[in-house]
Amino acid sequence: MVKKIGSWNLRSLLFILPVIVVLIFLDFYPIAYSIYMSFTNFGEFHFFNYSFIGLENYIRIIRSGFLWQLLWQNAIYAFGSVALFAPLGFIIALVMNQRGLRGKTFYRTAILFPWAYPAFITILIWQGMLDYRFGIINELLEKIGIKPIYWLGTPGTAMLSIILVNLWLSFPYYSYVFTSAMQSIPTELYEAAEMDGYGPLGRLKNIIMPMLSRQIAFVVIFGFIFTWNNFYIPFLLTGGGPGTSTQILITYSYSSAFSYLQFGIGAAYSVISILVLLVVVIIANHYSKMMTVLY
Amino acid sequence: MTSTNQPAESKKKTSRTAIYAVIIVVVIIIIAAVAISMNQPHKTTTITPLQSQKVTITVWGSGSAGGEAQAFNESLASFEAQYPNITVKDSPAINVASTTFPTAAHAHNAPDVYRDTSDNGGALYASGLLLNLTPYLNSSYINSFTKGTITDWKLNGALYGIPVNTNGIALYYNKALVPNGIPPSNVWQMIQDAKNVTAMGSGYYGLAYGIGNDYGYRFAAWFPAFGGSIFNSTHYPVVNSTQDIAAMSFVWNWTVKYHVDTVGLTFADEQSLFESGKSAFMFDGPWDQSTYEKALGSNLGVTAIPFNNATGLWPEPLWGSVGYVISAPIASGANSSQIWASLKFVEFMTDNNSQVQLFKLAGDLPSLIATGNYIEKNNFNDTVISGWIAQEAHTQLFPNFPQMAAYWTPFHTAATNLEQNSSKVTVASIMNQMEQLIIQTLNSEGIPLSVIPMSVISIQPSDYSTILLQISVPEIASNTIKF
Questions:
Q1: What whole-number distance in Å separates Cα of residue B133 and Cα of residue B366?
Q2: At A177, which CATH number?
Q3: Residues contacting residue A68 through CB under 8 Å, at least 6 positions apart
Q4: ipTM of this predicted complex?
Q5: B170-316+401-445: which CATH architecture?
Q6: Is residue A36 part of a domain?
């Protein structure tokens, strides 16, 4: 007889205990500890003898003027990336899902390549390709009569560059999500649509889009979440520069902690980043019910 | 039945239970985190007699280059032979200025000895992570180092490390591209030489320097050449001064007036131009010398960045060094034996023999006066050493106070702005922008805009004085570590 405590089943709890333990040590504890640190003066001048200072770090951040700049840049990075990789992933999935398409296996493997290749190396390669003087992209532009562009040297193009590199690294995953979702649509629906005289656009509008609405919401919102805190592309490609023009909250949090040794303030930046994400996810979920795709 | 088909009531109940569970877990963990951090016991240290006992110390040596690693290993072997009771556990993979050090220190698990740069060491000392070595070293030992180098390891009068070398940038030149292979003696001559090289053809830039990709380390040499500085004596930023504006105007004129430089150059571009003979000059440190030697062979020369004939002042590059620091017991959990052994280790690794080896194997410039004299006398067929010695006479101390950390990114922001928007901004406006950004960064990070008194810095003697006071073995307590 399995014991029950209230509505809790003890045996079930036993099974999920390992997951709970892992979550506590790898997720909840670090998050809770960083929240705690964000309310302390832990930093260069109070390394061992830090104390609780309430909202002082948050007030300092809000007053500094950097926060609004970072939020704006973070939003451009996240929205800009999603606006590109979600449609691109969808279009590629549509093409890959065409009946009678030759070489599907090859295309699928080729598309997977940017995702499977080590991101660190990919970013360094892109860094070389985007070099103003010796990069292949500017060389090609010059060959067709376009002046070289300071890809990583001006704020606008540097942000565009990290979005494009993020697109390169991300679109295969989203293409696969859409492809597998499209494959789950019963073929009878397509056949019925054909019999009713729907062309490709009609099938897209009346079958694919309605059937994939949850997956689209999932891709957009989770893509946004992944990108919002995606540290390594701005960190490795531009180092947050030129100046601070491609810093996002999470990279600035790192700078604050390790360039200025202000760990409390760095933790506060990371908490703000998570809070913004939470608000966005709650609002998005309220309207799209995208979480239901996980149930 | 899937969860989506569950009755709404049951679904609501499940999600409510899940929310409660998450809230409870988070609350418990926050309480636990607070409790743990507030009650975290500092490692207790045992005070033990010293020399006769076996003692183990941990060293993060970080021999970054091949020659440096070899010199380190040779000196380490000699040290272990001389002190058989001291075992050194070395982790060479930890680099200078590593983020690992503060992390380890916070866990009271820092190495006993760490090899670091003078400026990063200053930040660590300000955080209370390093031992103040002043009480353990006699003045004759301290005076055996070149004045500038040893001063660079002092913060508010406290010596927090011992330099093993000294370095900064100087002017590399290509003998084949300057008249008679002789380097310029003043900045006017430097620009004339650069003009001649630029005139050699498309893609030639006699004085290639990518200001938009600099974070201000190399540029800093030009502030003193016009009588300026980055911070004043109270550590307040003064880059918006007339002198600093003049320095920036001078360097910017290389591109817009003399056309010996161009926009958009990365450091790698500069190197590429210099190595391929398309640029006559390169501002760089000794760490890249072997690369240039391979490319230019006997045509490579090094000299002091030339005299500014317009002001009568010398450019003075930031001159720092790498050295050894000893962790405060609160950071490492060291006991008195380990501190004694650490001091012995640092003494040994920075002595004359070690520095001669470092020079021979890695080309490191020495911090000891005696080693410098030895190298100068013996020459070692090194054709560039005289250039480095000449530069060493015209340098500025690498600021190691906390405000310096707020200089790099604002410099980069402003310099990039100048390079990319030269038609819309003036040099004066970008220097004003730079100063405002430094102030904004300091305010944002909670770093005071003035000299930080030692009482503010979190060196809390009470945290470890009990350990140090009990190091009663005469060798340390009476400043009698013999060097």
A1: 20
A2: 1.10.3720.10
A3: none
A4: 0.77
A5: 3-Layer(aba) Sandwich (3.40)
A6: no
Cβ–Cβ of A36/B443 closer than 8 Å? no
Could you identify the residue written with the tokens 């508010």?
Answer: B156
Q: Does the distance separating the beta carbons of A47 and B127 come in below 8 Å?
A: yes
Whether chain B has a CB inside 8 Å of the CB on A260: the answer is: yes
Which of B236, B185, B200 is closest to B450 using CA atoms?
B236
- Look at B76-90, B367-381, B406-420 and tell me which has the smallest mean pLDDT: B367-381
Q: How far is CA B138 from the centre of its chain?
A: 26
- Does residue A11 fall inside a structural domain? no
Q: Based on the structure, what is the number of domains in chain A?
A: 1
- DSSP assigned state of A130: T
Q: Is residue A189 part of a domain?
A: yes
B-contacting residues in A 29-58 (Cβ below 8 Å): 29, 31-33, 35-36, 41, 43-49
Going by C-alpha positions, the residue among B357, B359, B349, B354 that lies closest to residue B325 is: B349
Per-domain boundaries in chain B: 55-166+320-384+453-477, 170-316+401-445
Q: Tell me the residue range of the domain where A229 lies.
A: 61-294
| Any B CB within 8 A of A214 CB | no
Residue partners of B480: CB distance under 8 A and separation at least 6: B138, B474
Out of A32, A46, A243, whose CB is closest to B413? A243
> pLDDT by residue (tens digit) across B146-192?
988 999 999 888 899 999 999 899 999 999 999 999 999 999 999 99
> Which of B17, B269, B445 is facing A265, going by the closest CB pair?
B445
Which residue of chain B has the CA closest to A56?
Answer: B446
Specify if A12 maps to a domain. Answer: no
Mind listing the pLDDT tens digit for each residue in B384-417? 888 988 898 899 989 988 899 999 999 999 999 9
Q: Judge whether B355 and B367 are in contact, CB under 8 Å.
A: yes
For the domain bounded by B55-166+320-384+453-477, which CATH number is listed? 3.40.190.10
Distance from CA of B66 to the nearest CA of A (A): 24
Q: Which residues of A touch B413 (CB under 8 A)?
A: 241-245
